[in-house]
Design brief:
Radius of gyration: 23 Å
Helix content: over 70%
Number of helices: 11
Shape: globular
CATH architecture: Orthogonal Bundle
Distance between the termini: 35 Å
Largest sheet: none
CATH superfamily: MetI-like
Number of domains: 1
Oligomer: single chain
Structural class: mainly alpha
CATH topology: MetI-like fold
CATH class: Mainly Alpha
Length: about 270
């Protein structure tokens, strides 16, 4: 037993090392005063300063954040109400069919999703006689498209775990269906909504393939900007940018985990 525990700990340690060693190197060299990725010269905030002086990088970051926030808000609202509708379906066959269709964007390769969306946008733009078929709005629709399944899969289990008598009791006490949803059901499913929203935000912020095929000529996100830099040279200020994004995402994930833990404690307290 002791040997198996030691072996399991070694495997876990090696796995964590394999996963996080590249990130640790990236963070370390973001504070390097020189351009070398092999020799660490002196500790410096030089590349962070250069990053905040790069208007093109900051514009791409702003575009990515705006796109991620807007797509997350829309997909979270749509996904929450979609999960609400799915949870109310009485036919198991119809429910499983809808869930299978919902999971297709998750299983579909990104390149196929990107190409298919691009063809659809170009077709619709040609039919409407638009000068440019691709723009910020086509990227927004694309990001909502691949975010929706993750929202639904995060919110639907919360609807299934919720006591079905609660909304019925609210209706009996005089609430309208809309009031019952916002005052009774929404607080119960909020951890799932937050988790799905964080997943949608991180995926939108990180997406490259689908954004590449659906982008307009006047809108560039951060992954697209970094890709354009790889054709020339990637300066260490990109390490600084990646470090900032990593810690922001890490903070959001910690908040999500703490929210889930609090929800689990509250759920156990109610059951007791």
């Amino acid at each position: 037993m002791k040997k198996s525990r030691v072996l399991s700990r070694i495997v876990i340690g090696l796995t964590l090392l394999f996963l996080f060693a590249p990130i640790a190197v990236l963070i370390a060299y973001s504070f390097n005063s020189g351009k070398s990725t092999v020799v660490f010269q002196d500790f410096s905030f030089r590349w962070y300063q250069n990053l905040f002086e790069d208007k093109a990088a900051l514009a791409a970051l702003r575009n990515s954040v705006v796109l991620a926030v807007v797509s997350t808000l829309i997909s979270t609202v749509m996904g929450t109400f979609a999960a609400y509708g799915i949870s109310r379906m009485r036919s198991r066959f119809f429910r499983s069919t809808v869930m299978s269709v919902t999971n297709i964007p998750m299983m579909n390769p990104d390149i196929i999703t990107g190409i298919s969306l691009m063809l659809m946008f170009v077709f619709v733009g040609t039919m409407l006689g638009l000068a440019e078929s691709l723009s910020f709005y086509t990227m927004l629709i694309a990001h909502i498209n691949f975010s929706l399944p993750y929202i639904i899969l995060s919110v639907l289990p919360k609807f299934n775990q919720m006591d079905k008598a609660m909304p019925e009791a609210a209706l009996d006490l005089g609430c309208t269906p809309m009031q019952s949803f916002f005052k009774v059901e929404l607080p119960e499913i909020m951890p799932g909504v937050l988790t799905g929203g964080l997943m949608a935000f991180t995926m939108s912020l990180d997406d490259f393939v689908i954004s590449y095929f659906t982008k307009g000529s006047g809108f560039q996100t951060l992954p697209l900007y970094i890709y354009s830099m790889t054709k020339k040279t990637v300066t260490p200020k990109m390490y600084a940018l990646a470090t900032i994004i990593f810690f922001v995402i890490l903070t959001l994930l910690l908040i999500s985990n703490l929210t889930d833990q609090d929800d689990g404690k509250n759920h156990k307290a109610k059951n007791n």
